[in-house]
UniProtKB/TrEMBL annotation:
Every RNA polymerase sigma-70 region domain range: 16-77
Recorded family membership: Belongs to the sigma-70 factor family. ECF subfamily.
Domain annotation RNA polymerase sigma factor 70 region 4 type: ranges: 106-156
Organism (species): Saccharothrix violaceirubra
Protein name: RNA polymerase sigma-70 factor (ECF subfamily)
Keywords: Sigma factor, Transcription, Transcription regulation
């Protein structure tokens, strides 16, 4: 029971705790270490003393003490406090919205950082993922990811990147990088890569949606902000049917659509219609939302309008000509033109997607449908080796074993 309380507190309090500590001490290293030490202390003390009535307040107090102790040990407390005032100047102009976690997101997503560093830092500092989990999300070695995150934090300190939400006039130039980060945070929650984590991490999907809502309050006319929110809502709506009672991933074709969240679907569809009514050319996230809207409009998989989905993917491929888009487009092609045509498209992506589990899983399914069991089994084996999600691994294993 105590262990569950610590896990729950980590999910609910990590981002807020790191944000509050960063605001006070102006140093991401201090904030991260103090937050981690506070949770380590909770693991030791809560089983003995009991879970405190207000875990968040207990963790904040403990983390503050840990941070101050570190600064004292290093005999640089005054210098650190000076840096804190530089990074977070209370007399500086307040951003368009005052939210500690949103400030932390914009700090982690500052354009002075490379995009991969922004995403990694946000997953670690805001999402609370461990370095190994972030490394798996990027398909890189844990040591390399640790160095990447450390360099990003050093860059923020050395460049004295301010800890605040940008002013209203500066938001449009900064928001695209934030959206890219939140998109990945949401995806990590919806299909968690950590083998020791829940297959679906609602804490991450909920936080990504919450922050995207806040950004939409800042930029209500930005089509891509609305599109990303709509896409998240329509994807999150399917979460209750995403994993079976036995812990196996349930594909879209097999999901119980009666279990989908109709409120989220209605809200997502409303946002998609709102953007369509503007007549403005849609961007990447608006097109993803439209694809999700088509899927969630079908009462049964057989009612899916695959022609419309393919047309939307064709448009998306022009806006975002990435191999991932091409892979997803091939799934729609398979439904309209058959698995053999789709397999030809997928095989062209081998050089760029050979390390991506979904490439091998898609290929395995197409080969299975073509009756090429031996090749399908080999593709499933490769997908299982690369997949980090426990529910997905269970699903792929069952499908592979059905070929015997």
């Amino acid at each position: 029971m105590t262990e569950a309380a610590v896990v729950r507190a980590h999910r609910e309090e990590w981002a807020r705790l790191v944000a509050v500590l960063t605001k006070r001490f102006g140093d991401l290293d201090v904030a991260e270490e103090a937050a981690a030490e506070a949770f380590a202390t909770a693991v030791e003390r809560w089983p003995v003393a009991g879970v405190p009535p207000n875990p968040g307040a207990w963790l904040t107090t403990t983390a503050n003490r840990k941070a101050i102790d570190r600064l004292r040990r290093e005999s640089r407390r005054d210098d650190k406090h000076g840096e804190a005032l530089t990074v977070h100047d209370d007399d500086a102009p307040v951003g368009a919205i005052d939210d500690d976690r949103l400030r932390l997101v914009f700090t982690c997503c500052h354009p002075a950082l490379a995009m991969d560093a922004r995403v990694a830092l946000t997953l670690r500092m805001v999402g609370g993922l461990t370095v190994p989990e972030v490394a798996r999300a990027f398909l890189v070695a844990e040591s390399a990811m640790g160095r990447r995150i450390t360099r990003a934090k050093t860059k923020i300190k050395e460049a004295r990147i301010p800890y605040r939400v940008p002013a209203t006039e500066d938001l449009p130039a900064r928001v695209s990088g934030v959206l890219a980060v939140l998109y990945l945070v949401f995806n990590e929650g919806y299909l968690a890569t950590g083998p020791d984590t829940d297959p679906v991490r609602q804490d991450l999907t909920a936080e990504a949606i919450r922050l995207t809502r806040l950004i939409r309050e800042l930029l209500p006319q930005d089509g891509e902000v609305t599109g990303l929110l709509a896409s998240m809502l329509l994807t999150e709506a399917r979460r209750p049917a995403r994993v079976s009672a036995t812990g196996e991933l349930v594909t879209l074709a097999e999901q119980d659509r009666g279990a989908w969240n109709t409120d989220l679907i209605a809200e997502g569809h409303g946002l998609v219609r709102e953007r369509l009514a503007t007549g403005e050319p849609p961007g990447r996230y608006q097109l993803l939302a439209a694809i999700n809207a088509v899927h969630t409009s079908a009462r049964d998989i057989r009612d899916t309008d695959w022609s419309q989905i393919l047309a939307l993917y064709d448009h998306l491929a022009r806006v975002d000509p990435s191999p991932i888009v091409a892979l997803n487009r091939a799934v729609a092609v398979a439904e309209l033109d058959g698995p053999e045509v789709a397999l030809t498209i997928v095989d062209r992506l081998e050089n760029t997607l050979s390390g991506y589990h979904a490439y091998h899983a898609t290929r395995a399914d197409l080969l299975r449908r073509l009756g090429r069991s031996g090749q399908s089994r080999a593709a499933y084996d490769r997908a299982i080796d690369l997949a980090g999600n426990t529910a997905e691994t269970a699903h792929l294993t069952r499908r592979r074993d059905q070929l015997r």
